[in-house]
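Running log. JK asked me to keep both predictions on one page so they can be read side by side. First protein, sequence followed by its tokens:
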Amino acid sequence: MGGNETEMAFPGKAIFVETQWLADHLNDHGMRIIDVRFTRCFSNHNKAAQQCREEYTEAHIPGAVYIDCIDDLTDASFKGIFYVPTPHQFAEVMRRAGIDNETILVCYDEAPYPLASARFWWTALYFGHTRVMILEGGIRKWIEEGRPLSNATPQVPPGTFTPKTCDSLRLTKPELKVCLNDDHNVIIDCLPFRQHQGKALNPWSTRKGRIPGAVWLPPVELVKGLNRTSTDKEREESMTNEKPYPFFEIEELRRIFGKVGVEEGKRIITYCGKGDAACTVFLALKMIGIQNAAVYEGSLAEWSRDPSLPMECSL
């Protein structure tokens, strides 16, 4: 299929593409599929990286190239804090993946809902690549529907990508400091409830607790089949049970966000431990049309390491 036909197939400004759409366009010229699975064993990067690469090699969506959620999507000069890569580093990642500024991207991961794929999607948007979509249901839904898989690593010609940052999507530590105690901002903590309360330590944090004033809304509250009544075992099993957990419908998402103070006219800031779940909640904010939203990329991995910054716990 030629480039113009691919242009006509591109589904506008939608965030997701359905599995059937991707199946119909697997061989389109001008499109690149990105496998960014990284959820299993994510607290151990080396183990996760090896396992995810092995899983990719064994079976992936035909034509997909693999991108590492940490090695490729964070600044390699920092350890333990997962800043976005430098523009040069990201351009090199895109070059190796055969991506130009006009390439249509469809990304997916193996999580129950978008995690690493949400991080890639947000990173691509931050660097000015707006032609990026997430596969609805990820590889879980693709496999569930019996669609084809491949163990062939595609050989792609190098791309040429020129990054142009969109700073409104990303919040830094100094910027977040001035947002504290400001009613015009809603800070969303996307971590598990016990970590939000300060009763458990996040793996990426050096101190227990949350950023002062943050409301609690993790991704599990936004998808069907998982919520605050789910047990820890059920949530843990969701990471490995191969079942996709779709987002609620738009009106239900609006209701859920409204309960924590999200409304037009306010700036919404998301954070988590290292910046993946924060991108998932940011994604859901975009689904309901919230424009003034940003991810605090340093999250608790950065905030907790600065003893001059306050953290609070529930009594």
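And the second, directly underneath as requested:
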Amino acid sequence: MRFVTLANALGDRYRHTVLALDGDYACAQRVAADVCVRYETISAPKQATLGNVRRFRRRLRDLAPDVLTTHNWGAIYWAVANIPPLARHIHIEDGFGPEERSAQIRRRVLTRRWVLSRSTVVLPSRNLWRIATEIWRLDPGRVRYVPNGIDIDWFTRVEHMARDVVVVGTVAGLRAEKNIARLLHAFRLVCASVPTRLHIVGDGPERRALQELAQRLGLEAHVEFMGQVNDPVTAYRSFDIFALSSDTEQMPLSVLEAMASGLPIAATDVGDVPAMVADENRAFVTPLAPALLAGAITTLARDPALRARLGTANRAKARADFGLGAMIATYAALFDSAAPVRP
């Protein structure tokens, strides 16, 4: 989605070739018609690392790009294929999967330390900056901090609907690291004391198991699985409180979108979330225990004036710090070999 945003905003300034390593090109439909972008596939069998690197290097030599951009650990062997360099390399790291939720895998640390030592590394969170410079031991002069940005005005058009029951909502891919199960356990405690509903927006491999858990917890009448939605503004319009229950995040766009929508945030203390929300909202960012998350949600659910105050502060913080224009300008400068952007 970030690529789509940048490509659409920068128009004919660049030409792009996209190789989705999982073969999923669904986001192509969001690219504007006047953007010059070509989509390619390449075979990358598992357990064939050396063969894949040779294959990637041949393709890279054929493409002859001015800039190679790789995203996250899944694309790291394209960076390996660029040694010795065939193109200037920018690596963008957004975070980690469930296998690295609590600790870095040493093999990956050493690989990143070696492969990325002469690359430009772009990170959207201060926590990732710390990991890259202290654990991966990358040269801080090559590491750029570029926070995510969103179209604030698009989300500030949200007008929240009046209703008798407080709606707690989350927007997330239903994957293990998002730990929606934690939110369900927390919500069971919330709805026992406050009239509330839970809207879960998103889809993924965990959906069936989460629906079964909601039934076991006796929540089927209080929880609605909304599935994937094309326009997130509509989803945020149905919320009074936004909840994040992840095990691992860095700078989640859903939190930025909820802030821009004028919502209070109850969240687990992961990544940059405490620094993202307004100062007044920070008390509702809790350790990972479901009971503590439930306490934050319950306090917000009982106090509409508090929700309004925090929502206003979050919207102001989003506008001041996380606008789309700044992100687009910074990435364009990086693609054109600009100076480092420090946190």
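Observation for JK regarding the second prediction: The two ends are 23 Å apart (CA to CA).
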